[in-house]
Design goal:
The protein is mainly alpha-helical. It contains 18 helices and no strands. GO terms for molecular function: transmembrane transporter activity.
């Protein structure tokens, strides 16, 4: 579907329905595996540093492929992209489901990721060109229901399946659904695209892969290996160098693979900055809370998943409501209210104790998710609304790429805060002992030190959330801007409007 200046008279609801079903399956897969990692470690006899590649590898493939989706959307029809994405996802799911060795499981997971990476930008681009600006909030709200609803049920469903069946059932459960969705797409998607002379610059692809891949791998590894490890800082340096070269190259191309000229539009730039900072803060809850609940409090995986379920479901159900509120009131009011709620609840999580009740945790997490539901989609939609139509593929690709990178940075940063503070608390407690500590004393000190580290990491996340709250005060309702290159030979300019 080619970006056009005016949306069609009637949005293609059939096309959107098929795309959303496909997106739901791929998003569900993203959170299905987390609770199964201990079972996979035991079954395949691998250690934590190896099994984490199932998450890191998935993130790496996403980070490498998402920047290419702007080119793919311009080059190919929605039908071709959907069938290709779902075909790859199905192939990866089958491979992973029958894996009896870790390399095959990792291969299946990365093939899955290659399909998943294409799905979300394609769906977002179709929605942008299908609805006028004044109705995009409601449309994006429905999209948010899919985006948030699938991960909401993922951990609980995964916990139940792993408790009753082999972990491979997670993939066998998804396989027939993905196959049916692929067949639906084959028979129902009929859109065509005129032949396009857009060509992929392979050197740009190499630079993008090294740049984004290096950053993602470096920051993802920092949490387990430490910042001083050569693998961490060398890959980050290589990533920064390649990314700088990539940006400079794109600025000189008539048809860039990823157009950084979108940052000339202030509403988009602000929304991208808020989304990056918010994603870093958001990962604190996804990462630190399960660690506190399972490692310190000894709550079972399925109970941990159930604790997070009300918040995730509320976030999903609020998405259509938030979309309609966005159409009526704009993004700033929603973002300021949502970020205020999120900042306060994140601060409450920085004061956890050994006696904090299960109910308290559930309530705080649910309210926190409520606040988050008022921010993510309105902020990103407001930014995309300012872009001229031909920039839509680049805007959606950039949004998804920045979220991957900021998620990796946020995870590494918060894990580092937690680890360093945990070590400091443990060393201080041991130094104050007057006798040789017993194993039981060491265990108690270790638990208290980890709790202190988690609380400090949540406090840093509170500051990050407060920064995004201040930035949200500058949001203005965006309207489509004039294309600065309209009528001219397409060329990226680094100059401001």
């Amino acid at each position: 579907m080619e970006p056009t200046a005016s949306p069609p008279a009637r949005p293609p609801y059939g096309l959107l329905a098929v795309l959303m079903i496909g997106a739901f399956i791929t998003f569900l897969n993203n959170t299905l595996l987390n609770i199964a990692l201990p079972s996979i470690m035991n079954d395949l006899a691998i250690d934590p540093s190896t099994v984490q590649w199932l998450s890191t590898g998935f993130m790496l493939v996403n980070g490498i492929l998402i920047p290419t989706t702007a080119f793919l959307i311009q080059k190919y029809s929605v039908r071709h992209l959907f069938l290709g994405a779902m075909g790859l996802f199905l192939l990866g799911t089958v491979l992973a489901g029958y894996a009896h060795a870790f390399p095959l499981l990792l291969t299946g997971r990365m093939v899955q990721a290659s399909g998943s990476a294409i799905m979300m930008p394609v769906l977002m681009n179709v929605m942008l060109v299908s609805f006028p600006v004044e109705k995009r909030g409601a449309a994006m709200g429905v999209f948010g229901l899919v985006l948030m609803g699938a991960p909401a049920i993922g951990p609980t469903l995964s916990g139940w399946i792993v408790e009753h069946y082999d972990w491979r059932m997670l993939f066998h459960f998804v396989t027939p659904i993905a196959a049916v969705v692929l067949l639906l797409g084959f028979f129902l998607l009929k859109d065509k695209k005129e032949r396009s002379n857009v060509r992929l610059d392979f050197f740009s692809l190499v630079l993008s892969s090294i740049g984004f891949g290096g950053l993602l791998y470096g920051f993802s590894s920092a949490g387990s290996k430490g910042w001083e490890h050569p693998t961490v800082y060398l890959t980050i340096i290589a990533g920064v160098a390649a990314l700088t070269w990539f940006i400079l190259r794109q600025s000189q191309m008539e048809r860039p693979m990823l157009n950084f000229g979108i940052f000339r539009f202030p509403a988009y730039s602000l929304s991208a900055a808020i989304s990056m900072v918010l994603t870093m803060a958001m990962f604190s809850g996804m990462l630190l809370l399960p660690l506190y609940v399972q490692s310190i409090r000894g709550i079972s995986p399925i109970d941990a998943g159930l604790m997070m379920l009300p918040g995730a479901l509320l976030m999903a159900l609020m998405s259509p409501v938030t979309g309609r509120l966005f159409d009526r009131f704009g993004g700033r009011a929603l973002a300021v209210i949502g970020l205020t709620v999120m900042t306060i609840t994140t601060y409450l999580l920085s004061d956890l104790t050994m006696e904090t009740t299960y109910t308290e945790l559930t309530v705080i997490h649910t309210i926190r998710m409520f606040g988050m539901s008022m921010v993510m989609m309105p902020v990103s939609t407001n930014g995309l609304n300012q872009l001229p139509p031909r920039f839509y593929p680049h805007g959606t690709a950039m949004n998804n790429t920045l979220q991957q990178v900021s998620g990796a940075i946020g995870t590494a940063f918060l894990v580092t805060i937690m680890s360093t503070r945990q070590e400091a608390y443990a060393a201080d407690a041991i130094s104050r002992l007057t006798a040789v500590p017993t194993d039981e004393t060491k265990l108690a000190i270790g638990m208290e030190a980890m709790l202190g580290g988690i609380n400090d990491a949540f406090f840093v996340a509170t500051i990050i959330s407060a920064v995004s709250l201040v930035m949200a005060l500058f949001i203005k309702r965006a309207k489509p801007a004039e294309d600065p290159d309209e009528g001219k030979k397409p060329k990226l300019s680094a100059e401001s409007e």
